[in-house]
Amino acid sequence: RLVLGIETSCDDTGAAVMDETGAILGESLHSQKEVHLRTGGIIPAVAQQLHRENIDRVVQEALERSGVTPGQLSAVATTVMPGLALSLGIGLEFSRKFVRQHNKPFIPIHHMEAHALTVRMLQPVAFPFLVLLVSGGHSLLAVARGVDDFLLLGYTLDEAPGETLDKVARRLSLIKHPQCSRLSGGQAIELLAKDGDKGRFPFRTPMGQAYDCCFSFAGLRTQITNTIVKKEAEEGVEQGTLLSCANDIAAATQHTVACHLAKRTHRAIVFCMANSLLPSRNPTLVVSGGVASNQYIRKALSIITKMTGLHLVCPPAKFCTDNGVMIAWNGVERLREGKGILPPDVDVRYEPKAPLGVDISAEVRAAA
Ligand code: ATP
Ligand code: FE
Q: Which intervals hold domain Gcp-like (predicted)?
């Protein structure tokens, strides 16, 4: 059985052809990151236009590289939620036409479900497991109980950690820094933090009072911005030219984000253990999403998992970010179990906002 996966939920146009074992037969990815980096953030209409210009070629390339013809496919899996409406629309429109034309079953995919399951393509991780997803658009903690069965323990109440790192990096104009010109905000902060003193600017860890699994990063960003504004005034430099303490601010930012993620993850582990949501044999925490590539954050999480006896698994960086491969794999997992497979002519809508699984965050908060 062969699955074509298509991803267009944000700023990557991705496609991949995969067999039932999870072997990638062919893939293609067009990233819009450079364009959005220049405009200082994603402009949805620009993202949509770039998806439109590239989707045909990306899908063709993935198919050609795999040596598979459309007729040989068993199904097409495409991200339909959550994400940017204009971006999701392009992938869905393309896929609906494609499945009708070739008379193939269609598998609508939840982008975060795909991130959560990717690890199983690389190594055997049995359900149930705990998963922390941290990226530019999301942050959530969930128990994965099955391919389409998730308990959502917590999510971000405002912005995502990657978004915070990107905005701090932009406020510091790190893109003009000689070492950082081609890096994402998160990567730039990780690099500069290596030579920084995290203790010089002691930022408060968010939501210190609440003992639940939800996240908040907007307040932290305000603290950081206020510090930058104050330092710029003290040193009499123009906005975005503060070099003297960029390393220290990067280190403190990274440290505080890591502390917040680690504390929330610890809370989730305690809740799962108290409610027998994880197996007693080899309980596992999977961490994925762009921010999961950060070594400092991984280290902080590994301290928590060691302390609580969990096994920590992080897929390699290229499988932590958006691509067609993870969507194809989700399609394979669903196809194997016969879950959510639709006929070619069914009317599917995209959903810009869609929580992953059953939201039990209030229960987690009440149990504290
Ligand atoms: P989505 O939430 O839909 O997955 P996205 O495209 O923003 O959206 P990813 O591609 O998974 O998410 O990740 C990109 C984010 O990860 C950016 O915010 C980037 O700054 C952050 N990031 C990448 N590398 C690192 C790193 N080494 N340390 C911290 N953050 C990082
Ligand atoms: Fe993603």
A: 24-329
162 lines ligand 1 (CB under 6 A): yes
12, β-bridge pairs = 31
Ligand nearest to the CA of 327: 2
Which of 33, 319, 289 lies closest to 136, judged by CA? 289
Strand partners, 155: 140
- Are 32 and 12 in contact by the 8 Å Cβ rule? The answer is yes
DSSP 310: P
Q: How far apart are CA 351 and CA 84, in angstroms?
A: 9
The pTM (predicted TM-score) of the whole model is 0.95
Q: What letter would DSSP give residue 342?
A: B
Ligand 1 nearest atom to the CA of residue 165, by list position: 20
Q: How many CA atoms lie within 13 A of 25 on its CB side?
A: 20
Q: Compute, in angstroms, the gap from residue 136 CA to the centroid of ligand 2.
A: 8
Summarize pLDDT for 71-96 with one digit per residue, the tens. 999 999 999 999 999 999 999 999 99
Question: Which residues have C-beta under 5 Å from ligand 2, the single-atom ion?
Answer: 322
Q: Which atom of ligand 1 is nearest to the CA of 11?
A: 6
184 CB under 6 A from ligand 1?
Answer: yes
Structure tokens at 217: 């990063």
> pLDDT by residue (tens digit) across 231-269?
999 999 888 888 889 999 999 999 999 999 999 999 999
**Exposed, middle or buried: residue 222 (CB in 10 Å: 0-12, 13-18, 19+)?**
exposed
Asked whether 171 and 228 are in contact (CB, 8 A), the reply is yes
Would you say the CB of residue 294 lies under 6 angstroms from ligand 1? yes
Q: Which strand ranges, in their side-by-side order, compose the sheet holding 129-134?
A: 311-313, 284-288, 129-134, 139-146, 149-155, 358-359
How many whole angstroms separate alpha carbon 240 and alpha carbon 172?
A: 5
First to last CA, the chain: 46
* CA 21 from centroid of its chain's CA atoms: 24
Residue 76: which of 46, 48, 108 has the closest Cα?
Answer: 108
Q: Does the C-beta of 340 come closer than 6 Å to ligand 1?
A: no
Cβ(111)–Cβ(160) below 8 Å: no
CB 31 within 8 A of CB 104: no
Q: Running DSSP on this structure, what letter comes out for residue 205? A: P
